[in-house]
Amino acid sequence: MFALSALLYPALLAALCIGAALGVDRASGGILPGPLLAVVGMAALIAAGEWTTYLTALAPATPYVLAAVALSGLIAGRRRLRAADHRAVVAVATACTLAFVIAAAPVLFAGRPTFAAYMVLTDSAVHMIGADYLIHHGQQYAHLDLLNSYGLYLSRYYNGAYYPTGADLLLGGSSGLIGVPVIWAFQPFNALVLGLSAGPAWLLARRVGLAGGWAVTAAVIATVPALVYAYELIGSVKEVTALPLVLALGAFAVEHKRWIHEGPRSAIPFALVAAAGVSALGVAFGVWTSATVAVIAVVALATRKRPAHLLALAAAGVVVLLICAWPTWQHIGSALQITQAIAGTPNRGNLVTPLTLAQAAGSWLQGNYQMRPAGASLVVTDLLIGVTAIAAIAGALRLVATRRHTAAVWLGLMLALGFVLTRLDGTWSNAKTLVLSSPMLILLAWTPVGALVAARRRGLALALTCALAGGVLASDFLQYQDTNLAPTARYNELAAVGHRFAHRGPALFTDFDEYSLYELRELDVGGPDFVYPPVRLAGIDTGHGNAVDVTRGRARDLRAYPLIVTRRDPLAIRPPSAYALLWQGVYYQVWGRRRDAPAAIAHMRLSGHRVVACTRVRAIARVAAAHHATLYAASPSQALAIDLKRANRPRGWTRQGTWYLIADTGRLQARLRIPRGGTWNVWLRGEFMRTVEIFIGGRRVGSIGGQDGGDAVVPQTSSPTPVRLSAGRHRLALALDGSSLAPGGGSSDFLSSIFLTPAGAGESQRVRTLAPKAWRSLCGHRYVWIEAVPPAPRVT
What we know:
- This protein is an alpha+beta fold.
- The strands form four sheets. Strands 8, 9, 10, 12, 15, 16 and 18 form a seven-stranded antiparallel sheet that branches. Strands 2-1-3-5-4 form a five-stranded mixed sheet, covered by helices on one side.
- Strand 13 (692-696) and strand 14 form a beta hairpin.
- Helix 5 (86-110) packs parallel to helix 11 (212-223) and helix 10 packs parallel to helix 13.
């Protein structure tokens, strides 16, 4: 799956884009610049997908329509391929490939299907279910079940026009063509789309005076500045898809001589790019389009073209824009309202603080783009930002002095537009504007490099290149080292659960993990602690991010859920007695409601740590007796906890609240006493991106790594490590060897607790059944809950 998703899939998507672009080039009269082929092809594929998903009956055919569009383009444009400038092709292909490798580095160097910045921004989970839904059902949402999370998310984000569909349908359609799950295609898709930005960036670099390897390097660096790279890692698919389209608009502006003097059909590529931008980013893309049209209009008037010719060109462009983005224009009223609301909201979302203008300079020597560098990193960052700003000013003056007016006006207008937009109050929209503005500032800063090379001052040119490129690449590497990767094995198991129990839902999911919306999409899944919880169970969560104890809810509300999916965690509260364990994997358990199982009429939740008082048992026993009900009592698991306070910890393993920060290499050692021999499961609670090895009695028994939940405040329970132990005292050790160059190798891990359970029945919370009159036998024992269940109704 790794080779299929990380290597073959991006290559296929690139081929689809090139094929579609050749068809557009043929239709527009052969005016399309070679470096823009892939981006224009992407725009054409988005337009095709918009219509197949808009005509819902055609939605399942979307992957094949995309393939047909690309294949027909390859056939129609085969002559263009043979006549291509091979030097330019090599330069652009090199730039795009390097940008893709940098963007996809976390997945490529992890060597497994995954995605980066796990749980930093769970909006990517919504894009995943949207990409899958659009290809199977199209832009039709009337049949969604709005009682559970899955239907609520799709309705709120897509039916309400909050999310435009352009990027998602391209993701779903292209990945569906070769059967790559959307969850594993997500990061390669973002990396490939961002990599395509290097094509128009290279063309712009050439127009500002760079050539050869200098232009290739500038294109790559302008594609992956620190802020853009950060947004690509967190999966901001709308902005990542919009970026190459914005750069393509600028490339069309500086290449105006190729097409504004031709017939009306020469406006097709530009209009396609504008339509795709609207479909991917929403009506806000019209701001960048309008500014570019203004630049082109001024240039056209300066050439003294006949007004009739310009009007015909504009009319053709407007028609193409309206048709290709029609599904988005359909919702323009609500889209404008949403855009206004986002632009004006003070809500910061996942941002700790608002981003600063300085971050658009491309260098930010901090692993987290939301945090300001400190110490020496801050000094170097400020120096690099200053160099970039001075170089950008010098670049603007250079463009004016060398009469590269179109490039100067477009780049200057884009930066001015970005500055104006960031003066608004919307923290979210300001951040997105900075992301889209950063490449333009980088390109301006690279302009003096071309001037220095032309003046034969290669030493100074190399020094400036090292500052500009080194700052960006170092910043990207720090983010690469600090990122969390999604746990591959756990999601593969969750996908297996979704297939095994498909269409047997609705299912309740008790763990905080919005990516389950995608993996369990065939179960109409609901998560009580999600942003949109199931309607019946809203309010039973204990806080956003925490696992859910379903016994807190009303018993009759649970009857709507034939299945409950929980994490395999011996310390978690098991579902009520109406549910029996149907399946257990390494990470998850699936509980099924017994047929015609009645809801409990009384439920008493207990801590499981203290013995239950007789007065409490008697109270629920009286209720049970009055209704001829049966008592059910769930006893806690037989867990043996390790006292971490007495453990011998390395200095770098510091206690912070209820957990320990593993910020350095070292070995934790603790003592434990096993009451009886046999197979025991070792469980670790915490966040473990790096590999932590487990030793007992000096013998390595296993390791935990790549098992993060993305939330240090709410640590997860890792998969169990089985080990056969004799009765008596043992010494347990956890060892972390150190950082590495692997993705996430520079991050910090967290340890909350260590405990052991006997393998098999001892791990489970056993349920005891008894008549109300035997209630005294429950006194003085430990239970997690006791409930009174009436007899099942008789079937006549």
